[in-house]
Amino acid sequence: MSAAWRQRPERSRRWVLRLMSWIALRLGRRAARLVLHAVTAYFLLFAPVARGASRRYLGRALGRPATLADLYRHFYCFAATVLDRVYLLHERFELFEIEVHGEAPLREQMRRGAGALLAGAHLGSFEALRARGRNSTGMRVSMVMYEDNARMLNETLAAISPAARQDVIALGNVDSMLRVRDCLAEGGAAGVLCDRGLGDDEAIELPFLGAPARFPLGPMRMAALLRCRVWFMAGLYLGGKRYALRFEPIADFAAAPPTPAGAVAAYVACLERHCRAAPYNWFNFYDFWDHGPTH
C-alpha cells in the first residue's frame, strides 16, 4: 500500500477536527452538538468505504448484522469525540464528567518514579486521558507516533492549542527512543496506539473479533527494550458529556518479561473485550481484516 493510502484515515480525522474546531469555538457547544448530526449524515451518505468498513466491523462486534441505526450511531460517536477534543485541548474540563477505573495501581507505580507505556487504540478518546492528567492528577502523558502521523497531528494541534504540541514524540528520529526513555524515567506515561502500524512494520497475526488480523510488534518491542510496564488504556465515550477511562495491566517487561508477541496477544484480547463492550467507540473506518492495521 502507498503512504498516501495509509494516511487517508488520519487525513479524514484532521479535516473533521478542523471543521468541528471552527464550529465549536465560533458557535458554541450547544450549536455544535446540533451540527454533529449533519456531519454524521454527510459521512454516512458520502463515505462508502468508511460505511462499508463500519458495517463489517459492527457485525463482528455486535454479533449480528449492523442496521442503519447502528452505522449512524458509530459515525455520530466518532464525530462527538472529535468535537469534545476541541474543548479538551482548550482545557474546558468543566464541560465533562470523566469516571476512572483501574487508575490507582498505575498512579502508585508512577508515584514511585516508574513510568508506564499506555497501549491504546483508535478506541474512544485518547485526549480524555491527557485532559485527566492536566486537570486533576498532574500525570504527564506524551503521545508516541510515527513521524508522518505526528507531523499531521502537530499541524492540527498548532491550529487548536499550540501548547499541546509538546506532548507529541515522533518516532523515526535519532533521539526518539531517548525522549520516550526520559519521559518514563521522569515518572511520566507514553501512549502508543497499538492497533495500527506502518506498511513495512513487522506484525503478528492473531484472532480478533472472529477472524485473523495483523497487529504491529513495534510498540511491544519498544517496551521490552525500555524494560517498562505496559497498561492497556481506553477513554470510552458514554454519551452526552460522559467518558470512562479504563486502565488494565497487560505486560511487565521489568520483572518477568513476556515475549513481545505474548504482550501483543494480551493487548488484542483486551482490545477485543472493550470493542464488544463499547462497539461504537472503535474508529478504524477501513477494512481492518482484509488490509490489516499495518496497511
What does the secondary structure layout of this molecule look like, with pairings?
Elements: H1 3-6, H2 8-27, H3 29-46, H4 48-62, H5 68-89, E1 97-101, H6 103-111, E2 116-120, H7 126-137, E3 141-146, H8 147-160, E4 168-171, H9 176-185, E5 189-193, E6 203-208, E7 211-216, H10 218-226, E8 229-239, E9 242-252, H11 260-277, H12 288-291
Helix pairs in contact: 2-3, 2-5, 2-8, 3-5, 4-5, 10-11
What does this structure look like?
The protein is α/β, with parallel strands linked by helices and 295 residues long. The chain has one domain (3-291): Glycerol-3-phosphate (1)-acyltransferase (3-Layer(aba) Sandwich). Helix content is 53%, strand content 20%. The chain contains 12 helices and 9 strands. The protein has helices at 3-6, 8-27, 29-46, 48-62, 68-89, 103-111, 126-137, 147-160, 176-185, 218-226, 260-277, 288-291; strands at residues 97-101, 116-120, 141-146, 168-171, 189-193, 203-208, 211-216, 229-239, 242-252. The strands form 2 sheets. A 7-stranded mixed beta sheet has the order 1-9-8-2-5-3-4, with helices on both faces. Helix 2 runs parallel beside helix 8. The longest helix is centred in the N-terminal third of the chain and has 22 residues, at 68-89. The model is unreliable at 1-7 (pLDDT under 50).
